[in-house]
């Protein structure tokens, strides 16, 4: 196992190292605000012809990076959230998150096949990425559905591109008064409820603070992150619900005399993710307590976050390497059409929804 994965993982690791160097370079970061995940998938895509040339020796390690390390990354993502932070947004934050996730995902499932001619699984993957937490949601759902890797690659491409696009648009639009009904707090809720990735929310809030001349405060940035993390948390019940209905549909199909091609997996890693959140909540309360020598609970938390980021970047690089541009051009257009439609729904529907909560959450 180790020998078969070694070359591929080493190849992906080189891309990850370059992506992290670029992401941590101050000049590049100040001008692009791109996270290591974005750099990784872009570099991976550029290097994909090299991967396909030596696929026989690299495939095992690249697949390991894109699948196994991704699940570890999702589990460790729990070190970014505490139960206290989740409780801070209260029932209204949960309600907003639930409305956004349910409406956007169901729209994708209906509109994707009927309007854009996509298959159901690709529509579900694009919908999950747009509704919940970007690439992490796509990859988590892909693991649950056991869908073809290419469908996940196309879906990740759509949410990465539109997430980055609106990460730049939101702060500039707010600074120029294009969201007249929202003050700083309202804009924070809006960002957290409608942007694709956690990294998109973090980047957008930093730019908004710089561009708005104080109108968008740190407290507004905090509520944006918390609302976004509430959507991330909802990935767990979402996966369980989708897994249940998908498996039920497969069983019905088999009973009707058709061949059931796939057996759904219960996403156990989602429960591990919740467990890490509970663990992180406890660690936060004893962060300075020493375990052995200078080893503290706070150090464990920091290390968990660091490993989470690295594993996610590995997964993005692995996905980028698997992009077959010929297939991407053939199949990607419809997926991008659906993702664009969902992005428009998030902007205008989200703006209306957040306006209804004025005086409650902001």
From TrEMBL:
UniProt keywords, alphabetically: Cell membrane, Membrane, Transmembrane, Transmembrane helix
Membrane-protein topology: Multi-pass membrane protein
Gene Ontology CC terms: plasma membrane
Source species, domain of life: Bacteria
This protein's record includes keyword Transmembrane: yes
Membrane-spanning residues: 33-52, 89-111, 123-141, 153-173, 223-247, 268-287, 299-323, 335-357
InterPro entries: UPF0324_pro (IPR018383)
Location of this chain's protein in the cell: Cell membrane
A Pfam family: Cons_hypoth698
Membership in a protein family: Belongs to the UPF0324 family.
Protein name as catalogued: Sulfate exporter family transporter
Annotated organism of origin: Helicobacter enhydrae
